[in-house]
Amino acid sequence: MNPRNIPPATRDDPARERRHSLLGLVSSALLTGAAFALVLAQPFARPVLLACIAALALVQIGCQLFFFLHIDLRRSHRDDLQLVLFTSLVIVLMVAGSMWILSSQHAMMG
Amino acid sequence: MRFASGTDRHPGLNIHGRDPDAHRAAEPVIFGFWIFLMSDLVLFALLMATYASMSLHGIAGGPTPRQAGDLASAGVETALLLASSFTFSLTSLALKYRDDRRALVGWMALTGLLGLGFLGCEAKDFASLIGKGWAPELSGFLSAHFTLLGTHFLHVACGLAWMAVMFVQIAVRGLDQAVATRIMRLALFWHLLDVVWIGIVTLVFLQGSLS
Amino acid sequence: MPTFTQDWTYWLFGLLRWSDFPPKADGIATFAASLVVLGALAVVGLVTRSGRWRWLWREWLTSLDHKKIGVMYIVLAFVMLSRAVIEAILMRTQQASAIGQAGVVSADHFAQLFTTHGSIMIFFMAMPFLTGLINYVMPLQIGARDLSFPFLNAVGLWLTAAGAALMMASLVVGKFSTGGWSGYPPYTELGFSPGEGVDYWIWAVSLSSIGSTVTGLNFAVTIYKKRCPGMDLLRMPLFCWTALCTSILMIFAMPALTVATALLALDRYLGFHFFTNGAGGDVMNYANLFWIFGHPEVYILILPAFGVWSEVISTFSGKHLYGYISLVGATMAIAVLSFTVWLHHFFTMGQEANVNAAFGIATMLIGIPTGVKVYDWILTMVRGRIRFIAPMLFAITFLLCFVIGGLSGVMLADPAIDFAVHNTLFLVAHFHNMLIPGTLFGMLAAYMLWFPKAFGFRLDEIWGRIAWALWSAGFLVAFMPLYPLGLMAMMRRTAQTTRAEYAPWLWTAEVGAVLIGLGLAALFVQLWVSVRNRARLAAPLGDPWDGHSLEWATPSPPPEWNFAVPPEVSGRDAFTALKAQGIAYREPERYEAISLPRGTGIPVVIGGAGFVCAFGLTWHIWWAALAGLFAMWGGVVWRSFQTDLERTVEAGEVAATHRHWLSRVHAVTPVGRDAETSADNRGLAEHEA
Ligand code: HEM
Ligand SMILES: [Cu+2]
Questions:
Q1: Which among A18, A60, A99 has CB closest to B53?
Q2: Are C687 and C580 in contact (CB under 8 A)?
Q3: What is the pLDDT of residues C394-449, one digit of tens each?
Q4: B6 in a domain, yes or no?
Q5: Residue in C closest to A96 by C-alpha
Q6: Range of the domain at B75
Q7: What residue numbers bound the domain in which A4 lies?
Q8: Would the CB atoms of A109 and C350 count as touching at under 8 Å?
Q9: What is the pTM for the complete model shown?
Q10: Contact residues for C652 (Cβ-Cβ < 8 A; gap 6+)
Q11: Domains in chain B, number
């Protein structure tokens, strides 16, 4: 089918999509920059800094999923979003569990 | 037809406007690839958990995470990979909107160059660590460090090899449906490697230099 | 690392030496090696003599048809089952005879036996069996023509087969790991286990795990994207639900195994320090990673069997499944919970009590959905018209024994009890109590249930019952004694003891093992007898058991395209509904051409290359390892340049095949359930209101 046969309402807009990608680049660059700046300047205590860079990383991951991978809350994306959420659940269980187990073992035997 | 041609049906850029048939055929293939990527993500998560534990308990008199991580070079690597993720999204847009292959091939080639640059930088980091006598055989921590970064490195290298195959296929087969969906899968792979890198930079380099 | 030599034999043959080939150190090992070689030669000879190489290659090995791939998986499973059962009997003989004496095999050989037995049973018997089953049955049940990715499916098969071949090669060339199926370091590190054994284990398991990952992915996509019109998720047969949950577990659990074995390989090959005793290695992380995989793995093994039991019990009770929604819910709950309990495999490793308590409680929680299932199955039978034929008999053994195994599992979930019986035969009794009546009997029942679908004739019922009696009695006699033995502190993996009080129990278990061996033989006799009587047992019309789901709506064996036209479904138990409305065998209004994947030899090449790569890595034959690796990826790339991957079956051919079958259906009188095992059962069921 020729693109021109598709009604304009359903045809996507290249300019808008290019802006979308650009936003992905800019937001990621800013978030990365912020994280590096925090680590270089060290304005807060270490635990606060750790929390900040972790939060910045999570936000950036969200941004990239949205802008580059086009995962969002639209209905047609439900399966994919569910998959991402389930994966996140599995990862949290595995990583948090492992850290808890291993650190406890080291604390008991260290 | 059950679906309006305008609906998105899978992660990554959807090309329904350009080629509705390819779009429909792409759906299960891309969904399957997306599942594979999720499985791969679990693999990275477990390597990171291992790294996190060994960076605390596996030093064994060797260098600490702070000594082993080079923040400046991590910054350069991050910039390269992020830029390449952006150029790949332009590659996808060229696939979706442009009928000529030039833009597509151009953006993908640029992506490849940025990826090569990234690999070069990382290889230099590895070499400099080994040059200081900090090879992976020295301590559990260094083993974990090299393995986590090395696994990501290998993934990027595979992405580049895949890209090379795609250049050949575009030349030999043209942009047929199968080739188009392969480029879309490669795009997911590439973007996800950048997502993984965010985790690695934060855990290994930023967190490391705070330790 | 091996010592670096300029020696040309090292570059050519790696660590392989003449002494690695038979004859072996002891007679039993030499005998086993000759059995492998002679067996392989016999197969080659038979195929050559009957002039069937072309047929084998074109019809089977290169086929992308999910049904043929399914059958090949199950053939592989039976071959490997035979080896692992023989090893089990040998182990039982050793433990019974080695009280204050040397017994029949050396300690080192005994260690190889439990390692290969465990690894084979899990990775090369149970996994191929259930994968083959899902492959065969699931697409038919959801009204699909094939899996989403037929090529990938074949790749999974051949990678698994390559792993199995590596296991077989280890009987002949060199020796296998002695580190158990879980391969714990530091024992499996180079310092304690030099040589090829552990490497064989690493690469065999890796091949199987890659195969399972891609297959799980394939199943999940198929269930999501290929259901026929009207087949909502909540209308799928329960077997498909369990297949879906198992696939999800494969997708998310296999990476943990890959990480564990890969890191172990890095330690062994490149001198890393992930799990070594010194230099900052952390052996406990291996246990952690392995069981992050290992626990979901046991649910990968049991969930499809739960699906089979649901089908068997509802079919042979002549009723709809009781509590369908609760069974679906319980299956999903088990799948998710199975990611939260892995620590119960190493309660004794030294973490604080709170960690143990949390994981212990999570473990006990799994008992709840499992209990729900057991009640649902029992309630399915209530007021049913139960036919006690072989698969149903297995189901009853399952229900009774599985509850015992489950109860011993809940006991082990209590860390305090586990501290007392950890690593004893109590544990061995527990997990065999789950795996044999649960998984293995489930697979055997499924084999008997669906065999007529795949081959167009039923299996002999008398020999089926003999097999059931031998397996059930054998299981009880072989494994119940292990509970008291465990409580008497007999440790697992023990090659010799001095405790005379173990003797009566161990000899009893030995009798049980022999009964199981006879049960296995009975299965082969059943197959042999049935093939010989296939004319009398023929049930080509496709529905010998008055089945509920769509696979029974096709001829036996089904045509390559499964359904002449895609079925339309309006509720659960789709085929029962069609039969009730009297439209099960109605001629469709029109036929359409169907496109099917063409067969290809590339998956066989990829599997072969995988074997070469793994063998090369095991023996440090680097050129072979590299060549294998490149050939594997070469196969993938080669495939990506191929076009014209499908062939078309014209509507006329589809129509002719279908009409032929329908005319046979209309020519036969349906049989009632009381004549189910008689020669009158041609696969057309009488509809009972
Ligand atoms: C068919 C009858 C079977 C018999 C007679 C049998 C017997 C045995 C014996 C004697 C052991 C060694 C126990 C010890 O460590 O002292 C063992 C271990 C084991 N078996 Fe079986 N088994 C049978 C079936 C199965 C099945 C069906 C599975 C799995 C699907 C299985 C999985 C295992 C595993 C994982 C181990 C542990 C290996 C290790 O210690 O690393 N077995 N079995
Ligand atoms: Cu478990």
A1: A99
A2: yes
A3: 999 999 999 999 999 999 999 999 999 999 999 999 999 999 999 999 999 999 99
A4: no
A5: C340
A6: 20-210
A7: 1-70
A8: yes
A9: 0.94
A10: C591
A11: 1
